[in-house]
Design goal:
It is a single chain. The chain is an alpha+beta fold and 99 residues long. The chain has one domain. The chain contains three helices and four strands; from the N terminus they run αβαβββα. It has a four-stranded antiparallel β-sheet. A hairpin with a 4-residue loop joins β3 and β4. The longest helix has 26 residues. It is elongated. The termini are far apart. The mean pLDDT is 81.
């Protein structure tokens, strides 16, 4: 699994989709500098009834449903990028240039 910080665009997209609860925080940053640093030892924790997964490279706790949604979003974007690349290689569309 590849860990990467959630980008502002991803947060905006997921927020606009409205599928994720806003009742609890989506992520906590700089976990090692807070009371939540214990989560580093167990690779996650439960806060206010929500399960959070610890991401070591970014030192973040990400709510598990948000992490799944981000992974699905990235998978969709990759599939669209791959499709566009194949379409371009096959000459199925042109970038507005006259033939």
């Amino acid at each position: 699994m590849t860990w990467a910080a959630i980008t502002d665009d991803e947060v905006l997209t997921l927020g606009l989709e409205g599928k994720l609860s806003q009742a609890t925080a989506w992520l906590y940053r700089d976990v090692s500098q807070t009371q939540l640093s214990i989560a580093r030892l167990t690779m996650g924790c439960k806060i206010n009834g929500q399960r959070y997964v610890y991401c070591p490279p970014t030192d973040e706790l990400i709510r598990d449903d948000v992490l799944k949604a981000v992974q699905q979003l990235r998978k969709r974007h990759k599939a669209l990028d791959d499709l566009a690349e194949v379409s371009q290689q096959l000459g199925l569309y042109e970038d507005g240039a006259a033939a």
